Amino acid sequence: MEEIKKAIRQSYGEALADLGKKNEKIVVLDADLSSATKTNIFAKEFPERFLDMGIAEANMLGTAAGLATCGKIPYVSTFAAFAAGRAYDQIRCSVCYPKLNVKICVTHSGITVGEDGATHQMIEDISMMRTMPNMTVMTTSDDVETKWAVEEISKIEGPVYLRLARVKTSKIYDENQKFEIGKAIQIGEGTDATIFATGVTVEQALIAKEELQKQGIEVRVVDMHTIKPIDKEMIIKCAKETKKLISVEDHSVIGGLGSAISEVLTENYPVKLKRIGIKDCFGRSGKAEELIKYFGIDSESIKKAVQE
Fold it and tell me: What is the domain count for the chain?
C-alpha cells in the first residue's frame, strides 16, 4: 500500500467527469450535496447533463427512473443514509422492480462518516440493498478500484448500488490491476487465516496482515468489492485452504458482508466464520479514526481476532 491517501468520494467525482466525456448518455443527479459527493466536478464539465434536485431524494430517484426509460444512464448521488433510507420505496418500486438502468452511487456510508453522528452513519444499507431483486451491490476500497467501478457499472444493464466512503484511504492497487464485477481479489497466499474485507476495511485488513506476518502468522486478505453477486467460488476456496475465516465491514454484522459469506458457507462448506462489524447498535459522533477503533473494525481488532 502507498501511504498517500485519497478520499474515495473524490475518486468518484473525477471518474464521473471522465466517464461523461466518453459517454453522452451519462446524466448525474444530486440532492443538494454535490460539493460533498463530488458530483460538482461533473456539473462543472457538463452543466446541461447535471440536475440538482434539492433535498428531495425520493423525487430524485423517480426522476432517474424516468430518464432511464428514455435511454439515459443516470448516476444518482447523495449520502447513503438519504438514498437507502429516504428513497427506499422509490428504489424498490421505481428502479428495481422494472429493472431500470439507474446507478445509485452513495457517499458517506458507515460509521466512518464521523462527527455527523448516528443519524448520518448508514450501517444497514448493504443489507437493505442486497435483498432487493435485480440489484448489484458494490463497495470499493481505494482510488483505482473506485474509478474502475464507476466506469464498469455503466457497461452493465440494470440497477447498481455503489457504496463509497467519506474517509481517505491508502492506494492499494496499481493501474494494471484487473477487476471484474462479482469476482473478489485475493491478496496473499497465507493459510493461517482468510480476512474477508470490503470498502474501507480492506486497508485495515492489510495493515493487520503485515503485522501478523512479523509474528509468523501468514494470512490472506480477500477484497469483496462486489457483495451481490457474491463470489461463492472464492469463499469456498478460502474455507478449504485456510484454518480460520474472518469477515470485517464498516456495516452492521446483521445482513452485511459477514451474513452474505455465512449464507454461502452454510449451503456449500459449513465452517466457522468470525464476523467483525457494528454489533447491532447505532453509531456515535466522533472522528473516523476514533470510531474505527471504538467499534472494533481497526487493524488491531482484526489482528486479535486472528490470534484468538
Answer: 2
Name the 3-class secondary structure at 71.
coil
Describe the chain by its helix, strand, coil percentages, rounded to 5: 45, 25, 35
14, 45, 57, 175: the catalytic one is 57
| Calpha distance 223→220 (Å, rounded) | 10
DSSP 8-state symbol, 191: S
pLDDT one-digit tens code per residue, 224-263 = 999 999 999 999 999 999 999 999 999 999 999 999 999 9
Residue with cell 437493505: 128
Please name the residues in contact with 138: beta carbons below 8 A apart, sequence gap of 6 or more. Answer: 149, 153, 160, 161, 162, 163, 181, 225, 226, 227
CA torsion 100-103-108-112 (nearest 10°) is 90
* Parent domain of 86: 2-171
- 88 shares a domain with 63: yes
Last residue of a domain, one of 171, 205, 226: 171
pTM, to two decimals: 0.96
Which among 165, 151, 8 has a CA at the least distance from the CA of 73?
Answer: 151
277 and 220 belong to one structural domain: yes
Digit-coded pLDDT (tens) for 39-70: 999 999 999 999 999 999 999 999 999 999 99
Is 210 noted as a catalytic residue in this protein?
no
225 in the same domain as 152: no
Q: In a 10 Å sphere around its CB, with 0-12 CB exposed, 13-18 middle and 19+ buried, how is residue 215 labelled?
A: exposed
* 282 falls within a domain: yes
Question: Which three three-digit cell numbers place residue 148?
Answer: 474502475
Report the pLDDT averaged over residues 83-112. 97
Residue 180: inside a domain: no
73-79/2-7 β-pairing: unpaired
Question: Do 77 and 37 meet the contact criterion of CB atoms below 8 Å apart?
Answer: yes
192 and 157 belong to one structural domain:
no
160-163/103-107 β-pairing = parallel
